[in-house]
Batch of 4 targets.
Target 1
Amino acid sequence: MQMTIDNLNISYINKGKGKNVILIPGWNASYKYFNNLINELSKSYNIYSLDLPGFGESSIPTSVFTTHDYALIIYKFMQKLNITNPTLIGHSFGGKTIIDLITTTDIEVKSAILIDSAGIKRKRNFFTKMKNYRYKTLKKMITSLYKGEKQEYLLDDLKKQLEELKKQQEAANSQKNNNSNNSGNNVNGGTDTSSVSPKTGYTNVLAMLMAMLMMSLGMAFFSIRKIKR
């Protein structure tokens, strides 16, 4: 199916009967990405899905589109088809568009389901904040003390170390989730021996604080040397 919104041809699909559900695909994706889900949900719901401008079979915009521009396309799409009180389901960029749509327009929705959505700022824990602080501090030291190839080499090495730390953290989180899932299967009062003791956590915090202190003292020392010169 096709309709025109703001001089753009918008490709969409409508299938099923019941309460309204709108599926919003992610960046550079077509509503056909949802084909299996559409076929299943249309057994119980009235399903709509569309190709956002520039994707799938919809027209390419003549100007650069912001997230809000895409949200307005969905808004006008709902108005044209008289879709009221829908459940919105968005994947990735589609989820980000839904967030903009709900927060910047007068649209009323029954619920919103965001799948691996962009636009959500995840809360960072203490250790992540300390790692970022350490990275920024070291980067500042390197750029102030070294130039040319030496600087590029050290910055590249620092970036690799950060990426490796991220991989280790992701692996640790994955292992922690697996241990949490497996702990429920323990029988005869068994305990999960993989948990980290509070003492270990305090040791890590102390080590990071000491590292930060040493880096701060190092920066102050080199700054004084540069001033004296």
Target 2
Amino acid sequence: MNVQKDSQTVYVDIDDTLIMWDEPKEGWVKKVKLDVPGGNPATEFYLNMYNYTFMRKLMDRGYTTILWSKSGADWCERVARGLGITGLVFACLKKPDIYIDDYDYGDSIGKRVWYSAEGKRATEYGGEMDKLEGESDE
């Protein structure tokens, strides 16, 4: 059993967040070939570089990274393998169908941060996120 210690955590959605199903637009500069569930042949997807870069910055800062998707843990694992980041990911999970918690979903999960294909942050969340945005990728 994986036990997460007291580090900060980032949950990263897969479909239409980390990888995109649509035709490439500016910012989706990397094609990714992945095996899809059901034994279908490999399919090319497009990596949303804005969300990927932001996730990597959080990883570099020591955030525990969990990939999750409504499509399931196996799909998350395929994406992690395709991106070569399995050693950096703590767990791959299916998104919950039901959760039991005394807090509302938004309060218990944390702040939402998401970058559009054009690189615009869709949700304002300052502090640590602003510091990371300002860092150079060099």
Target 3
Amino acid sequence: MVGQCDEPKVSIIDKIIENFEKLSGKCYSGVCLIVDKNNASHIYELIERLKNIGVDSVKVSPCIVSNDGTENNKYHQPIFEKVKEQVKKAVVDLATDKFEVFDAYHELDKKFRNLNSQNLL
């Protein structure tokens, strides 16, 4: 396995949210919410918290655990439907013309390859 998603620490998430709350001015703020097995059951709650503090857009994406698409899909398979349901609910319940929920949580192509593994960088 190339990498492993670490378990999020509540204090870190709370600190990030606290920092977003401190933002002032007219800026468009977006968050990319990376899904792993540790936060999969809290996706709706996190999106709702982000909306409540004034974030404008949330993109939900899978964490990448391998340069192999099949391995990534295997990692996400046990949580896939649970996450998709929460994202769909968030789109229905929370999305407005001033708050976007973008669903980028999907299976990876079996031919997926990380650019670093191809020595292109």
Target 4
Amino acid sequence: MLSVNEHARLLGTFEIDRLFKLIAKAFAIPSDEPAYPCGPVLECPACAGPWLHHGWVEVFERPREDAQDGLHVSVQGMQAQISTDIRDNPSSRRDGLLVSFFCEWCCAQLVLHIVQHKGQTFLTWEDRHNDTACGPDCDRYPALAT
């Protein structure tokens, strides 16, 4: 098992910073306020609100394309789990990332999928809405309702 520090060293902070800049740019909403010193704001796909809080993160790394084994790192709060089980990798052939989000405005519970395929990177949202966590204001959540 790798420690969190060893894992961070393997991933490299430069690559992580570059990835988050790509995500912010891809899902940016324009802002007239200069109050965002880190760049564009990621918006909620359900309500377009700019107050998304990220939660757990999962990283899936393969040693080569189509490999059946690899590294799976799951981080939630100050806890990290490292395994070689990549069955939940969002990419069927390459590396993948999952980042959970919660929207302050509309109670959306979302997972951002970052998937590599044939030299391209795809960003998609998954709705993990839970009615019991939402409360009486759930009618504010029409965009992702099933």
